[in-house]
Amino acid sequence: MAGKYKLEILALIAVLVFCALFLYTSLVTGNGRFAGSDTLASEKIVELSGEPIGTIHPLIPQWVPPSAEIESGLFALQAAIGGLVIGLVFGYWIGQKKGTKNT
Q1: Is 70 exceeded by the pLDDT of residue 35?
Q2: pTM of the prediction?
C-alpha cells in the first residue's frame, strides 16, 4: 500500500518542508513581517550607495495605471490569458496522448 501512494507522500513531505521553511524564515528574520525580494534589494541598494530611496530612479520608467481598479483589471486579464494558454497546452498534450492510443 505504501508503494501505491509514494508520489502523494513525497508531495506532502515537500509541502510540509516548504511551509516549515517559510514559517521559520518569516519568524526568525522578519519578526513575522514578510519582505519580498524587491524590498530586500531596495534596502541593499540604499545600504551600498548611501543615497535615500527617493533619489534612485529606474533606467526604464514604468507606466502607472490611473486607478487601482484598472490595475487589478489588467492583472485579472493577465491571469486569465495565462490560464487559457496553460489549458490549451495541457489540452493539446492530452489530445495527442489519446490520439496515439486509438491508432
Answers
A1: no
A2: 0.43
